[in-house]
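Researcher: Good morning. I'm working through a list of sequences from a screen, and I'd like to move beyond sequence-only analysis. For each chain I'm collecting a predicted structure so we can compare shapes side by side. This is the next one on the list. No need for commentary yet; just the structure.
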Amino acid sequence: KTLSIGGVVSGSGGIAVKQDSFVVLTNDDTFSGGIWVEKGTIQLANSTNAMGSGNMNVGTNATLDIQHGGVSLRPVPLYLYGTGTNSAWGALRKTTSSATTLRGPLGMLVK
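Model: Good morning. Structure tokens for this chain:
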């Protein structure tokens, strides 16, 4: 299951991915409730602000896939709580060759 959100996501709420699915954010989003990926993958693509603002939480069976070139992403706290969706991807995956800078606090809790 893939959900690609091409429009701007705005408001005070957040995004939760709770099923084994693939969600793609591709725009300069302005939502402020953060992201929680419990299971599955969320991909940030084509925009330095795709993740909105608020905490980015990647759960035990989840992956954050960053598909950007050489950019500096909006500073948001990133928390990795596990080892990812599978052994090949891990909890944090980058699918482009140029460097991407995460400009926020990084917290890791791997069990």
